[in-house]
Structure formats: C-alpha cells, structure tokens
Design goal:
By secondary structure, the chain is an alpha+beta fold. It is built from 21 helices and 10 strands. The longest helix is centred in the first third of the chain and has 21 residues, at about 80-100.
C-alpha cells in the first residue's frame, strides 16, 4: 500500500462580514451576505454599530445602546424576501423532524410533563406542547420550554458559526408558542422568526462568548425577545427593555458543554427562550431592565466578555432593508456537533473506500488537523478524558470528534440512535481505534473557520493516517456535503425526507404530511391554523415516556 493523497473538494459558506468601524460611531456599507451560495447573493446595506464600554459618568445616549439598535431593527417593518420565507419554512420542518425523533427521550419527556402542569394564563388561549394535541394547551412560556428542549435534545438542527456559535432554530419554539397563545396569524409569525434569526446571526458575527466561557445562549435571549417584539408589534421602547432583561437573565457559564456533559445541554436554550418570553411580559407591563446592559461600566462586556477596553463591530441591516440573516445559516444532515458534520462525510467515504481503516490493528495513529475551535471544543485539545470514555453520556459523545470519526469510519454511516448506543460505543475494536485518534490545531484551518470570504470559510480539516506498515493516507474536506456549498446542498425535499426518516415509528405518515402542508403555507396561515402548527403523537406513544414526578 503506497502513500495516498486524495483531496476532497473544498466548499464554503458566506457567514457575512463583521465590518470595520471606527470607535466613533456607525459605518454604512454593502455586504453580499445573504442567500445560500454566498457569491452572487443579493446585496444588503449594513450599518456597522460599534459597541464599547462607557463609564457611568460618560454619557451614552439611549439611541446609541446596542440593545436599542436591536430594538429598532425589531420594530422596522422591512419586507420579507421570498427566499427568506422559503428558508423559514425549511427550518420549521427541520425543527419538527428533530422534535419527533426526541419525543421519547428523558429530557424531553420531563420538560413535557412540566409544561402540562401549567395551564394557559389569562392573556391568551395557551400554546401547544410538542407531541400533544392542541386541545391540551399550556402557558406559552412553558410551551417554549418544553418545545425548545425537544428541538435541542438531539443536537440535530441548524447552526451558525462565526465569532460565536449558535443554533438559531432555537428561536422558533418560543415564537410559535406566543403566536399560538395570542392568536397571531402566519404572516406575523414569519416576521418574528425572521427577526429572531437576524438578531442572533448579527450578534454571533461580532461578539464571542465562548472565549470567556459564557454559554452561547446569551445571544439567544435577546434574539427571542426581539423576534417576539416584531411578531407582537411592540414599540421600540418595550422591545429595548425586553432585550435588556433577556440578556441579563440568560448569561451562564459554558460548563454545560464541558467535561461530563449532562442533559442540561438540551435545556439551556429552552431556559433562555422561556426567560425571554417572561422578559417580554414584564416589559409590556412597563417594567425596565439594567441599562446600558452591554456597554455599562458593570455590564456584560466589561465584566463577562473582553473587559473595559473592548470594542465590537456589530453589523445590522440598515432601516428598511430586508433581514436575510437566516440564509447564512445551515442545517445538519447528521446528529452531531456541527464541526463534526464534514468529518462524518469524509470518514464515511474513507471507511468505504479503504476498509483497512476500520481495523485498529492496522492503524498506528490518526491526526485530524483542524481549527482551534474544533480542537478545543470537541477534540483532544479540550483535555476532557470523558471524550475518550466508552461509558460517557450521549451528550459527551456528541462532542467527541475522535469517537465520531472512529464510528463513521467503521460503519460507513451515521445514525442518530445506533451510532450513540452504549453497545456501539463500547465495542472493543471501536474503543481501540478511537484511542488512536487525536486532533491538532492548524492555523490555516483556524483562519478558514473565521474567514468572512465565502471562498475560504470552512469547518473541516485534514486527516492524516499512519498505518503500522509505515504508509500514510491524507485527505481533507472543507464543508459538509449538506452545506449550501457542499457536495449535496440541502433543499426542501431533503428537509422533508429528514422529517419522514426521523418520524418513522413515532408519527403516522399522515401527521407528517399535515404538518408539512401547514408549514409550507406559513405566510397565509390563519390564527387557527397557527394553533395547529405542531406535531401530535399517538397518545400511547407519549404515555410510554412517563417520568418520575417533581414539584409541579
């Protein structure tokens, strides 16, 4: 066996630009970020808002606060582009798919039981709990909680990676819940989702949380609050207060994604969304929030992020321009951390074309050369022994690229249940191969990870295999096959197929078709149809996941 060099095609997505602005104010410029495909996508005017810490005795006009600028964005009634509408529909289907697959999992069953103990409040008709018929509504913040856990549990929905990382689809459950509760139509819900995605994407482009060990859901609280403001037609003042409260109550450490990762990983975004719903309620009642929440002397930037001397350039759509942030996001074909998506595709192909890779007795070592983020979060650079533990939780294995590559090499596939089964993780030959896989940071791949150039941005890396006979194999991949610029970009038919696959054995085919029909008609849905924009499982199925009781 001679030395082999096989180069996978390199693709990348346009994650937009964070912009260049002086510390003195805003800069308006054009950006090509937007439609999947990056180059050639419609241009959108961006206003790059510079955010820095201000001393208490240093004047900062309310209109110059980032929270106010986000509120202005939320209350700007710009038109929704057709391709943005189509992507919102895709993500509704995607969320329903991953929710169906998680209905019987313990965190989802617990959250569902908690929600069902909280009947609708006096402000509306209540909201549907995922898996339960709409005739049994609950209070909207608890529906946001339960349904958010169902979406997040399998780590299988959409993603956006830039200065920070995120799952923007986490916005949707809370927005749907409040729309159902308040009797809003599909057009209002659509506008709210578009805003939620835009705010989260814009914050993620510019402000790193993980660098300071703050969990990424600190960007979700403000985005949900902003989306609710758009959907409900609230004033800029009310949305401003809600965003400040939502941020203040949703900052937490990243320990939820470190070491022995627990079920809280699924709950964390739902908790942030629930807090945002409650913040909007308080703001609507005239209650204020800490301000300036980002720029204050004792605020988030000064004490939780880069400190008193920090400055961030946050790109926001100019007034009256379309919000296209959702089109820079991408979903997952595989149930695993997004940085693992491309590696799964590469490992599947290599395992099929080179079966010798599946035999640990023939492999001396495998090194995955990749970005800093992949190396330290899901790779050996995390220094988490749990990432090599055959008895580790599913949540931990989901964040172990050595485990994921080992299984994908051996099985030639990735399955949201089979690939994580304890018996699969503990198979002796898998454990032996797994222990021989490490990661290494490569500055070139780190640069590509952070690039704003659609021709360069990438989330993969280079694999180098050394066999016991001294020969080597080298290959690389930049983005996942399902990525907008990958080998097989996801389209509507792929989202529907993913839903059908994940709903098998959980939902009747007719229920899948009913939901897809509703989602596809989102802009024209009546309030009554929005109230039925959720999946309903057979009673016997939901009852089979009963959990121990708690306080409620």
């Amino acid at each position: 066996m001679g030395t082999q060099h096989e180069q996978a095609s390199e693709h990348a997505d346009d994650a937009g630009a964070t912009g260049d602005a002086s510390s003195g104010g805003d800069v308006t410029r054009a950006s090509s970020s937007g439609a999947p495909g990056g180059p050639g996508s419609p241009a959108a005017d961006l206003v790059v808002h510079t955010v820095r810490v201000h001393r208490s005795d240093e004047p900062l006009a309310r209109e110059d606060e980032l929270a106010w600028r986000l509120a202005v964005l939320a209350t700007d009634h710009a038109p929704v582009d057709d391709d943005v509408t189509e992507m919102v529909i895709n993500r509704l289907i995607d969320n329903a798919a991953v929710s169906a697959a998680s209905l019987l999992r313990a965190p989802v069953a617990v959250a569902r039981d908690q929600a069902l103990a909280h009947p609708p409040t006096s402000g509306g008709a209540g909201a549907q709990v995922t898996g339960v018929a709409p005739e049994h509504p609950v209070s909207p913040e608890w529906a946001a909680w339960s349904n958010g856990v169902a979406v997040r549990e399998l780590d299988f929905h959409d993603t956006f990676l830039a200065a920070e990382y995120s799952h923007p689809g986490d916005n949707i459950p809370a927005l749907v819940a409040v729309a159902q509760h308040r009797g809003l139509d599909g057009a209002a819900l659509l506008r709210g989702i578009v805003t939620g995605y835009e705010v989260q994407v814009d914050l993620v482009r510019a402000i790193s949380l993980h660098a300071h060990k703050i969990d990424h859901v600190a960007h979700l609280g403000p985005s949900v609050a902003a989306g609710l403001g758009t959907m409900l037609g609230l004033s800029t003042e009310v949305v401003h207060q809600a965003i400040g409260q939502a941020l203040h109550t949703t900052t937490a450490t990243r320990q939820s994604r470190k070491g022995a990762i627990s079920s809280w990983k699924a709950y964390a975004p739902a908790h942030a969304a629930k807090a945002a719903v409650e913040a909007v309620d308080r703001a609507m009642r005239g209650q204020g929030s800490p301000a300036p929440i980002y720029e204050g002397e004792d605020g988030v930037i000064a004490w939780l992020l880069d400190g008193p001397g920090a400055s961030y350039d946050v790109p926001l759509p100019a007034p009256g321009t379309s919000k296209r942030g959702i089109l820079d996001t991408y979903t997952k074909e595989h149930s695993a951390e997004y940085q693992a998506q491309a590696w799964i595709d590469l490992a599947r192909r290599l395992g099929r074309s080179h079966p010798v890779l599946r035999d640990p007795s023939q492999v001396r070592g495998i090194v995955l050369h990749t970005s800093h983020h992949t190396h330290v979060v899901i790779g050996s650079g995390a220094n988490d022994p749990q990432k090599y533990d055959p008895t580790a939780s599913r949540e931990t294995l989901d964040h172990s690229i050595p485990y994921i590559v080992a299984v994908a090499l051996q099985d030639g596939e990735w399955h949201h249940e089979r690939s994580y089964a304890p018996a699969r993780a503990q198979r002796p030959d898998t454990v032996e191969l797994w222990q021989r896989i490490t990661t290494a940071e490569d500055p070139a791949w780190t640069a590509r990870y952070h690039s704003t150039d659609p021709a360069e941005k990438a989330f993969g890396g280079r694999i180098e295999v050394e066999f016991v006979d001294g020969t080597t194999l080298v290959d690389e991949i930049a983005v996942a096959d399902a990525h907008p610029l990958g080998a097989r970009p996801f389209g509507r038919e792929d989202y529907v197929r993913k839903f059908c696959t994940l709903a098998e054995g959980v939902l009747p085919r007719g229920e899948v078709e009913r939901f897809v029909d509703l989602a596809t008609r989102l802009p024209s849905l009546t309030a009554d149809e929005v109230r039925r924009l959720g999946i309903v499982a057979p009673d016997a199925l939901a009852g089979s996941a009963a959990q121990p009781g708690g306080l409620f």
